[in-house]
Design brief:
The protein has nine helices and four strands; from the N terminus they run E-H-E-H-E-E-H-H-H-H-H-H-H. With 212 residues, the protein is an alpha+beta fold.
């Protein structure tokens, strides 16, 4: 396994997207340093942050020991998870068919589960004007996606079979199930998976990192 001498620099905050990377780094057990990006103060628009995250979104990382030993920056949570998994040879399979399965569920999360839950949260909680159509649309899509996840987990301990970056990508969003009405009775396999994830000390540390 690849070793890490210098800490990986993580520019983030404890949102569901940031938590993906916090969990991954804790699960890997590699040295890393947390740099909180205060979005309320516009720190995501500072030139030094835009240099590593041109979409002005968290998370982003800088690995001082990147390919060939030279530093590399990576933005977008899914890309960060794959980069770290492939670098350290953990939480991403070597078998090509198994890789496809992990990639499917990783991209399912970054393309659907996260954005749709985010829109649900925005229109239901933060939007200055409560638009019934938008609330209904995103609430229904949220529960549909929870059902997709529940069906996938029906006969599996983890999303793609073995524990992987697919689980780390989804956990930050799924843990807020109460907000979205995803009850234990309707989504029992999701809740059993949440219990399994909560039994992993490194995952718990990652989810809590930066909240204090």
């Amino acid at each position: 396994m690849t070793t890490q001498t210098k800490p990986i620099e993580a520019y983030s905050r404890p949102t569901p997207n940031g938590q993906k990377v916090h969990v991954m780094l804790e699960e890997l057990g590699v040295p890393w340093t947390y740099h909180r990006i205060d979005i309320s103060k516009g720190e995501q628009f500072k030139p030094e942050f835009l240099a590593i995250s041109p979409n002005n979104k968290i998370p982003a990382i800088v690995d001082p020991e990147g390919p060939g030993g030279a530093p590399i920056s990576v933005f977008e949570s899914g890309a960060i998870l794959k980069y770290l998994a492939q670098k350290f040879g953990k939480f991403y399979p070597t078998d090509a068919r198994a890789q496809v399965k992990v990639d499917e569920w990783l991209f399912w999360q970054v393309g659907g589960f996260g954005p749709m839950l985010g829109q649900n949260n925005h229109f239901s909680v933060y939007a200055p004007e409560k638009i019934p159509y938008a609330i209904k649309r995103y609430s229904e899509e949220t529960l549909r996606l929870f059902k997709v996840l529940d069906t996938q987990l029906k006969d599996k301990d983890f999303i793609a079979g073995d524990i992987s970056i697919a689980d780390f990508a989804a956990i930050g969003w799924a843990q807020s199930w109460e907000r979205y009405g995803a009850t234990k009775a309707d989504y029992p396999h999701v809740h059993a998976w949440l219990d399994r994830m909560a039994a992993r000390p490194a995952t718990v540390r990652g989810l809590e990192y930066g909240k204090a």
